[in-house]
Amino acid sequence: MPIKACADKLKNELEQFGFPPVFPGDVEEREEEEESPDPADPTKRAKKTKSKVAAKTGNMTYQWDIMRSLGINDHDIRKFTDPQHWLEYFPPLAKEDLKSLGVRVDWRRSFITTDANPYYDSFVRWQFTKLKERKKIKFGKRHTIFSPLEGQPSMDHDRATGEGVGPQEYTLIKMKVVEPLPKSLSSLAGHLVFLVAATLRPETMYGQTNCWLHPDINYIAFPVKTGEVFISTTRAALNMAYQDFTSEYGKTQVLLHLKGEELMGVALKAPLTSYDVIYTLPMLTIKEDKGTGVVTSVPSDAPDDYAALRDVQKKKALRDKFGITNEMVLPYKPVPIIDIPGIGNLSAVTACDQFKVSSQNDKSQLEKAKEMTYLKGFYEGVLLVGPHSGKKVQEAKKLIQGDMVASGEAVLYQEPERSVTTRSGDQCVVALTNQWYLDYGEPGWKETVRNVLKGVRTYAEEVNNNFLTTLDWLHEHACSRVFGLGTLIPWDPKFMIESLSDSTIYMSYYTVAYLLQGGVVNGSTPGPLGNTSRADDSGHTKCGDTHQPCLVLLDCGIATSLTHFDLLQMRALFTAIVKGDLIIMLM
Ligand code: ANZ
Fold this sequence. Notes:
Layout: H1 2-17, H2 27-35, H3 44-48, H4 52-57, H5 63-69, H6 74-77, H7 83-100, H8 118-133, E1 137-147, E2 152-153, E3 159-161, E4 167-177, E5 193-199, E6 210-213, E7 218-223, E8 229-232, H9 234-241, E9 256-259, E10 267-269, E11 278-282, E12 294-297, H10 303-314, H11 316-321, E13 338-339, H12 347-354, H13 363-380, E14 382-383, H14 393-406, E15 410-416, E16 421-422, E17 429-439, H15 443-454, H16 461-473, E18 476-478, E19 480-481, E20 496-497, H17 510-516, H18 542-545, H19 562-579
Parallel strand pairs: 5-8, 6-11
Antiparallel strand pairs: 1-2, 1-17, 3-16, 4-5, 4-10, 4-15, 6-12, 7-8, 7-9, 10-11, 13-14, 17-18, 19-20
Helix pairs in contact: 10-12, 12-13, 15-16, 15-19, 16-19
The structure holds ligand ANZ.
C-alpha cells in the first residue's frame, strides 16, 4: 500500500510538473508551507512535523525529492512510477545494509510478500480459502476508517497519523428548530430542520437545558435521505454522507453555509428534556474536529456545560454580544437526573464548586471536576427519571439510546476517535463499506481461542490479562481492500487481501521458504524442493496439502504498541486454530 501510494504520487508529480519536474517554489518555502498551523487547532501542525512520515522524509513534500535524497539519478527515478520496480530495487540494498551491520541471517528464507512471488501468493490464498471454507470470512457493510481520496478503507500501516485509531460511535440527538424558522434559516422553510448534537451520554438527555454552538465555527445545512435537513460541521456531514445518511453515498448537498454566531438564540425542541423549548447559546471551547460541532448541554452532569451556562447567565455583555435574551438563559437550572453515591444528584454542580471552577476556560480545574464525576457516574450512577429510573447508568445508556433511535429522535453516527491521515495526506472518515471481513466476534470461534489461552503460560501475568482483554473487544475485522499490492481474494479478485490480514501467520512461511524458493525472493526459479506448481483456485498447493505443523512465530518488530502486539498475536491464534496446526508463540 505505501509502495503503491508513493509510486502513484511520483507518477502524478511527473504528469503535473514534467520530467525532470520543475516544482513551484524552492524546498525551503515548501517546508514552511508544511508547517503552517491548522486554523482549527494551531497546535496540530507542530505535532504533525514529528509524525512518522515527517521523520522518514525530513519534511520533503514531493516524492521526487525523496527519491533524489536517496541518491537515485533522474533517469532512474522515473522507473519508480511502477510499483513492481520498488520490489526489485530495494530488497538487495536492504540485504547489503543488514550484512554490513553484521546481522546474521539465513538469506535462503528471504521472500517477497505480494503476488509478485507465486509461492507466497499460494500460501496466502490457501490460508484464506481455508478460512472461507470454515465460514470465518463474511461479506457485508461495515463501519471502517476510510479515505475518501483513495476510495477505500485505511488500515493502520496506510496511515501517516492515527495508528490504532478506530471508529467512535456517538448518538446524534435531533434537536428540532421551532417554526417559524429564524431569519438565518428562512430559506429552509417547509423543511424539518434539526441541529444534530453528538453525545456519548444519551442517558443524560433528561437534563438538557440548552444547546451549544461555537460562534466562529462554520456549519452547513444539508438534506438527509428522510427529507429532513441537518445542521453540523462540514467534516461531520462528510462522515454522515459515507454512512448512508444522504441520498448519494459520500456526497452532501449544501443548502446553506452558516457561521455559529448566525445561529445564536435559536429555539429548539429536544427529546426527553423537561424544558418545553431550549435555546442555542455560545460556547467557546467547542472543538471543530470533534462530533458535529453542535453540543447538547447537561449542566447537572457535565462540568463543562455547568461552567459555560453559568458564564452566559452571569455575563450580560456576553448575552448582548450574541443577541441572547434573558428568557433564553435565566430560567434554566440544572435538573437532577442521576444520583452518584457520595457526590449527589447534581454531580457537575458539586464538582465545579468543590474544585472552584471559575469559568468555561478554567481547563485544569474542569479536568479535575470531570475526573471526579465521569468514571464514578458511569459505574455507580443511578438514573432518577424516566421509564428506566432506578437502573444503573451503565445499563440504562444502551436502553435509552435504543428508545430514542427507535422513535426517530436520535440516530447513530460514527467518526474516527482521533484525526487519521493517510500517507497520501487525506483526512479519513468513518464509512460504511462493503467488504470481506474476518468474524473474530463469532462466539464459537472466540470460545475455542479462550480455551486455548487457558493452556498458554505467559511469563508475566499482565500478558495473559492483555490477551483476555483483547479477546473481549476483538470483533469483525476487515480483511479486503481495493488499492495496493498483495494477494487477490481467490473467490472475489476485485478485492485484495489486506496486508496485515495476510501476514498474521506469515512467519510460519519462513519454515518452508528455503525449500520452496531457496533465497530467490520473487520465486522466479524453483527452490530445492522443485515445486513449480502454483495454487489452483481452491488455493491448494503441495505445501498446503501435506499439512505440516505450522510454526507461528510472532514478530514483536511489527508491533508498535502492546495493544497491537496483543491484537496481532490474537489474530494469529484465531487463524492458526482454524487450520488445526501447532502453534508456538515466541514473545
Ligand atoms: C451530553 C453530555 C452529558 C456530555 C454529560 C458529557 C457529559 P469526550 O468524552 O471527551 O469524547 N462534545 C461533543 N462534541 C463536542 C465538541 N465538538 N467540542 C466539545 N465538546 C463536545 O466528550 C464527549 C462529550 O463532549 C459529548 O457528550 C458532548 O457532551 C461533548 F453528562 O453530551 B456530552
